[in-house]
Design a protein that fits this description.
alpha+beta; Nucleotidyltransferase, domain 5; 2 domains; six-stranded mixed β-sheet; six-stranded antiparallel β-sheet; globular; binds zinc ion
């Protein structure tokens, strides 16, 4: 793992305007990248380069009000920069083949993936992803709390300077890189192993494959006489990542499916031989005459 480098990425994206009708293909790309910021780090976490580029959107060319407010970007600025396929190629050159893509939370790798798929570009499957938000909460803050901490919170917690603007791709990437360095700094000289191997040991539990599909939603139609729980027990669900049939986990004294909210919500755990535990959550929707179950199958992180 010695030659593995890290790249901290931060993306800004635009989305459809409220009330505007979405063309069918748009469903693949809910968020379109308009800016990419990235900081490259060596395996010893020293900064070795910076990358920044605006991306000229093809789908959402009108600036969403909330995004304009958050990023300070103008509609005019959406006309600057190259199209995603060009910027993506430059970004690949910058990051390199074997890299760990670090980001604050899970959203950036997901949005990057959807944009790559939309433009039908090649995925660098040798990349792994690292969630810095989770790394920070567990190692620096020492909490298993599921609260999603902001970058600003983490900077304050670690006594790091807030000398750059927020919600700009490059400065947010720089901030996240500083949090990454500061979170691992206390482990640097804890024993005689090299810093690199200690870092990898600490990071490993937080690595994941960004290309694996972790979630899908399935609709199950109900007839007037159907009892939702019976229907759920008879329906087969597949693993989001590999499509293999899930085996419903039965715990002692309980059936696999349990009621969360009577007549409305049900839950079960399934198991995929390759991808492990999956959560299956079913909610009843629709009218009395025409009701259906909306079932979300998810591989937890
Ligand atoms: Zn699977």
């Amino acid at each position: 793992m010695l030659d593995t480098t890290f790249t901290v990425i931060d993306l800004e994206w635009n989305s459809a305007l409220p009330g505007s009708k979405a063309p069918t293909r748009e469903r693949d790309m809910m968020f379109e990248i308009i800016e990419i910021g990235a900081i490259r780090l060596s395996s010893r976490l020293d900064v070795t380069g910076a990358f920044h580029s605006n991306v000229r959107p093809v789908l959402y060319r009108r600036m969403h009000r909330h995004i304009a407010k958050l990023t300070g970007r103008t509609e005019q600025s959406l006309r600057s920069g190259d199209r995603f396929p060009v910027v993506y190629r430059q970004m690949l050159d910058f990051i390199g083949e074997k890299a760990i893509l670090a980001s604050w939370g899970h959203s950036d790798p997901e949005v990057l993936k959807s944009n790559i798929e939309y433009f039908q570009l090649e995925k660098p499957t040798s990349w792994l992803a690292l969630d810095l938000q989770q790394l920070f909460s567990t190692l620096a803050e020492d909490t298993s709390s599921k609260d999603q901490r902001s970058v600003e919170y983490a900077l304050d917690f670690l006594n790091l300077p807030k000398d750059l603007p927020f919600h700009e791709a490059l400065s947010d990437a720089r901030y996240a890189a500083r949090i990454f360095q500061a979170t691992l700094a206390p482990f640097k000289a804890s024993c005689d192993k090299s810093a690199v191997s200690i870092y990898m040991e600490k990071i490993r539990p937080f690595l994941y494959d960004p290309w694996v599909n972790r979630q899908y939603t399935q609709t199950v139609t109900l007839t007037k006489t159907d009892e939702p729980l019976d229907v759920l027990k008879k329906t087969a669900f597949a693993c989001p990542a590999c499509d293999n049939k899930l085996k419903i986990i039965h715990k002692p004294l309980t059936s696999g499916w349990r009621i969360v909210k009577k007549g409305r919500t049900w839950f079960a755990l399934g198991r995929c031989v390759t991808h492990g535990r999956c959560e299956i959550l079913a909610k009843r929707n629709g009218t009395k005459e025409k009701s259906y179950l909306s079932v979300r199958v998810r591989i937890p992180r």
